[in-house]
Amino acid sequence: MMFDTAFLDVPPLQAVTGTVRLPGSKSISNRVLLLAALCEMAGDEPTQIHDLLDSDDTRVMIAALAQLKENSNATKKLFLGNAGTAMRPLTAALALRGGQVGGYELSGVPRMHERPIGDLVDALRLLGCDIQYLGNEGFPPLKIGEPKLKLDAPIQVRGDVSSQFLTALLLALPLVAMQDIHVDVVGELISKPYIDITIKLLARFGVTVQQQGWSRFTIPAGSKYTSPKEIYVEADASSASYFVALGGLAAMADKPLQILGVGADSIQGDIKFIEAAAQMGVQVKSEANSLTVWRAEWSKATGFLKAIDLDCNHIPDAAMTLAVMALYADGTTTLRNIASWRVKETDRIAAMAIELRKLGATIEEGADFIRITPPASHTGWRFASIHTYDDHRMAMCASLAAFNPAGVPVRIEDPKCVAKTFPDYFEALFSVAQTDAKNIPVICIDGPTASGKGTLASLVAKQLGYHYLDSGALYRLVGFAAKQAGASLDDEAAVATIASQILVDFDGDRVSLDGIDVSDDIRSEASGMLASKVSAYPSVREALFNLQLDFRRLPGLVADGRDMGTVIFPEAPLKVFLTASAATRADRRYKQLISKGISANIEGLRADLEARDARDQSRSAAPLVAAKDALQLDNSNLTIEGSVTQVLEWWNKLSGGDAPSQL
Ligand code: DC
Questions:
Q1: CATH assignment at residue 314
Q2: From CA 618, how far away is CA 466, in angstroms rounded?
Q3: Do the domain assignments include residue 572?
């Protein structure tokens, strides 16, 4: 599952514990994909890649490489999304290699066309590459033609804008290493650890780069890629930063958070983030391939993390996580030497400043630094709708604000942007995060049979990324199971025993009982009648009580039934009582049955509905009545979309509006 919603409200969180397994590293995945493809193009055998990251950026790379394999004489047009790790090295490799009648065109999303590539193009042109700008000078999209290589003079490349330019050259130059090729870095090289990853991976593919400090790199004459045949991608150290921070904020020494996939042996520079985090108050136990984290005793004692002043050039991506940790610090934190933030997926310094201010922090920003003064601890935090700028790291960072001491939720816009590097980030977060049940929002939708509750509730759940409880299905399951077991439906005790033992599993709109899919059986009219009968037994309702409470899980729940708002979740912030006239409901049910090829009689259906209404309303145990604080919605004359819009409007007023802390 992924949160494919307009926004995701992360409820106030209190603790974390358990284990997360991180996805593969984006930087390593895309480099390995390219190297494996270059080996194959040179006639070597295929490379088996394990633990590859499955994300937007790797898909873009895989699609581009597949396109390159196709035989065609036309211009090859590669769309590279917003993946800098595909755009830069492919530009270098294709420009040096040529070999395509009609050349290549490389483009991306609009933001990609604002991310500079001029320094790389300048270096490649000096080598004799034919590269034209199709849009603005210095930026993609690019047109690449046939090179006339001249490799004698050392190549100069700027190192102070993006280390990806140097990485791109180092990955591509072995394709043409007829002689020693020297690359000289002009200006102070930033993000050195990423160059380290590149050099280590080149070595795995048979090319040894000679290095003079960080200023000259030499690809020896005769270098040639050879496939390692098999390679493992380690987990993403930048992704680890969110969980290291989570552990530091909210895990305890006796119930720490375990992070699997990266550890002390990592070749990724961002692993150094743990040193900065430790300074702030995270206790980290580092093993070869895992990290165990919790809040340091001293930080727990003061109730604050420690403010830091740090040069973050060596951990540009993970440093964003420090910016959000700074909201919990005992003073002002300054993160320096982060000019590269300005040319990433978005201008991250500007974005971070705007969004952290919304949460209540005081921010100062400069060309290459950001200074963060936290909100006053309880009173200064604000509910905020965090804009994420199509930047995965903005979204993941923002979720860390949910531990605020004021207990306000955090709204994250466009949560699916995390798919760039960590498609299941929020699932992973919710699998280790804990909070009081009362912090987990519930929307109740109660009403009579065939009023359209199920459709409405499941659509609202989908729009909000919440779980969905179809409580009627539970009573239907009990009736069905009792019948199957041969129990008499008049025997309350026997039916209640069955109710207390059922093993139910919901998967989308499929329901299974003891592992067998019974969705169609329980949705029949006959099962509806059985359900109406067994649901009148107090002991059956009692037996299903806790089971229903268990559905209240992060990040929230939409529950439909008869007594969601009156009995099961009486303190739910939004209760809707959904009705429609008996004639409308009979008509809808009739059409539903006919469309399934089941013959039906509209008068009979209406009589059945009215009989069931009467029984549901008149029973003594949890009768069908609207909760006192329920909002009435008669959907007789509304479309489904109309009803969904109304409920979401009510919800938004409650959650995004004046009183977020009531959630
Ligand atoms: O919503 P439905 O038609 O699937 O419900 C089937 C029966 O279960 C219905 O007759 C009433 C009963 N029910 C209940 O008593 N309490 C609930 N929360 C949900 C359903």
A1: 3.65.10.10
A2: 32
A3: yes
d(CA 9, CA 306): 28
Say if 409 falls within a structural domain: yes
User: The tokens 């000259």 sit on which residue?
Assistant: 216
Active site residues: 317
Ligand 1 pocket member 446 (CB < 6 A): no
Residue 449 lies inside a defined structural domain of this protein = yes
Buried b (16+ CB within 10 A) or exposed e, 483-516: beeebebeeeeebbbbbeebebebeeeebebeee
Domain boundary among 208, 232, 256: 232
Ligand 1 center–CA 201 separation, angstroms: 60
pLDDT (tens digit, 9 = 90+) per residue, 577-622?
A: 999 999 999 998 899 889 888 888 999 999 999 988 888 888 888 8
**Which of 562, 577, 585 should be mutated for ligand 1, with most atoms under 8 A from CB?**
562
> Which residue, judged by its Cα, is nearest atom 4 of ligand 1?
472
Q: Which atom of ligand 1 is nearest to the CA of 449?
A: 3
Residue 531 CB–ligand 1 contact under 6 Å: yes
- Give, to the nearest 10 degrees, the angle between helix 26-41 and helix 56-69: 10
Asked if residue 91 has its Cβ within 6 Å of ligand 1, the reply is no
285 and 297 share a domain? yes
pLDDT score at 656:
62
For residues 189 and 253, membership in a common domain is answered with no
Instruction: Look at residue 522 in the predicted model and tell me its pLDDT.
Output: 94
Domain hosting 110: range is 26-232
Q: What is the pLDDT of residues 61-88, one digit of tens each?
A: 999 999 999 988 899 999 999 999 999 9
